[in-house]
Amino acid sequence: MAINNAWLVRPDWDAAIYAWDFPLKNRPTPQNNQQVIEEDSFVPVQNNYGGFVYSGGTMAFTAGYFALGHYKPKVLAFMGCDMVYTKTKNTHFYGSGTADPLRDDVTLRDLEAKSVRLQAMGARQGCAVVNLSKDPSRLRFPRAALNSIAQEKPNSFNEELITQALELEQNLGYYVPSGRYWEKESRFNSSEIDALDALWRRTTLG
Fold first, then answer.
1. Model pTM?
2. Cα–Cα nearest to 120, from 179, 165, 60
3. What's CA 117's distance to the chain center, in Å?
4. CB contact burial 47-78 (16+ within 10 A = b; e otherwise)
5. Which partner for 128 in 81, 103, 152, 175 could form a disulfide, CB atoms 3.0-4.6 Å apart?
6. pLDDT single digits (tens) 110-126
7. Residues contacting 139, CB < 8 A, separation 6+
8. Whole-angstrom Cα distance, residue 206 to residue 203?
């Protein structure tokens, strides 16, 4: 599944996913069995995992949650989504565009915590979430190699702390059904989100 401009990397992608404001001129025309995944498809799936405020409002995480919910894979592998940015070359799915996590966004204050949450949600449904990249990364996923990816197993997590984190999310009530959380951002307390992120960080056991 290719995120935003990444469908240009190679022609044999199966699905292309992009945000509602992705420029029309940059959108692919699917061929044969290819499909495009837009807001009307990925918002309900991400909502099933708690919504955008808790899972992180960037397409890397949105693609991950959509893949978990729609494809239900045994292994979910990322490449080119490390969120460590350089001004010298294009290394990520947005090419030379503006990176989401560099904007002032209350859902992206702790990328590491958001990646732990995604990994924990994957583990809960028997999916190993890994990173194929060899570059420095903000993602806390274990590194993996493509030639041995079928042997990857989910990491272990503290289920008691996961339950606490999910209960805290329910109590905060930062759920926006439309997915356009930025329209309701005045409702969100960044300190409360920071505390939630810190709790998610503590759930990992390996």
1. 0.90
2. 165
3. 9
4. bebbbbbbbbbbbbbbbbbbbbbeeeeebbbb
5. 152
6. 999 999 999 999 999 99
7. 78, 81, 82, 83, 111, 112, 115, 131
8. 9
